[in-house]
Structure formats: C-alpha cells, structure tokens
Specification:
By secondary structure, the chain is mainly alpha-helical. 56% of the residues lie in helices and 11% in strands. It contains seven helices and three strands.
Length: 182
C-alpha cells in the first residue's frame, strides 16, 4: 500500500508540473504566439488528491478497525478524483484560451492548433495506483499491524500514584502542607 501510494503520488505530482497542452494564439499584426499550460494550470484536482492520498498512507498505520477502513476509502476516492482530474484536464480548452489571453494581454483570446502531451496519461496512471492502494487497504487493512497501544489517547481512568493516590490527591496533600512522598 505504501509503495503504491508513494509511486502513484510521485507520478501525479511530477505529471502536473509538466506541459499538458500546447497551442498557438493569433497575435496582433498577424503574428502567432505559442501558448502552453501545465497540468496544475489546467486542473488542481490531481495535486490535491495525491496529497490527500499521501496523508492517508501515513495515517493508515496510526488507526485500527473502522478508521482504517475509512482511510482506505479516502484513498480510493483520492485515486478516483485524480483519474477524473486528469481526464478533465486533458480535455480542457477553456484554460488554454485564458492562457492565450494572459500572454497577449487581452481580456479574451482563442488558442488554436491545440495539441496534448502524454503527461495527463501519466497522472491518470498515478491515480490508478492510488485507487489500487486504497482498495488494498479496504480489503486487507484490518490484518495489518498498527502502532502500539502506548500511542493511544489516555483513558478517563486516572493512574494511581504511590500508596494508591491519584495525582489530584497528591497535589491536594501538597496544598495542605503535607509531604506526599513520605
């Protein structure tokens, strides 16, 4: 699970920093300006989902039982969100038009001859790895080791100190001027 999550997240985070789409925009005086957009510019969804999956990978060993099932489901959703984001980003042309407008300094422009790179498919593959990691957690996570009980939150019961006194009893004795140690 950890390996799949790490590999999937690395693929996604690498892919979103690369150029996903390239094109040209008609400029002034008949010129043409090259425009390009990275995956993170086209869609922020894969980045957020990959980071959520990395957090889930850390959390999976800190929880047990139903909480681990929920962490697995979160990872499945993160993988599915990454896949959806990669597909949506690959198909997005509106952002390319906005990039063209920004480069030309206009309020609107139209990008033409848009070509797509292979990086959305790399992000999609990373999302599938995240989805598989979540499915493995849901299916087999209950049998995985967890952190020891010493890391659990303290219970409502108070620990008895020397001679069976609670810490509050010891402080009260100090307030009365008594020496609780001896």
């Amino acid at each position: 699970m950890l390996l799949l999550t790490a590999l999937g997240a690395v693929l996604v985070l690498t892919a979103v920093g690369r150029t996903w789409a390239e094109g040209v925009a008609p400029g002034t005086a008949g010129g043409r300006i090259a425009v390009h957009a990275t995956g993170s510019r086209l869609t922020g969804l894969p980045t957020g989902m990959a980071l959520a999956a990395l957090a889930a990978a850390v959390a999976v060993f800190a929880v047990r039982g139903r909480a681990r099932l929920l962490v697995g489901l979160l990872t499945v959703l993160a993988g599915a969100g990454t896949v959806a984001g990669a597909l949506l980003g690959r198909a997005d042309t509106g952002t390319m038009n906005a990039v063209a407008a920004g480069q030309l300094g206009l309020t609107s422009a139209h990008a033409e001859e848009i070509t797509r790179t292979g990086w959305p498919w790399v992000a999609l593959a990373g999302g599938l790895l995240l989805l598989a990691a979540g499915a493995l957690t849901v299916r087999f996570g209950r049998n995985w080791p967890a952190m020891g009980s010493r890391y659990d939150a303290p219970t409502a019961r108070r620990q008895a100190g020397p001679a069976g006194h609670t810490p509050a009893d010891l402080w009260k004795a100090l307030d009365r001027g008594e020496d609780p140690t001896g």
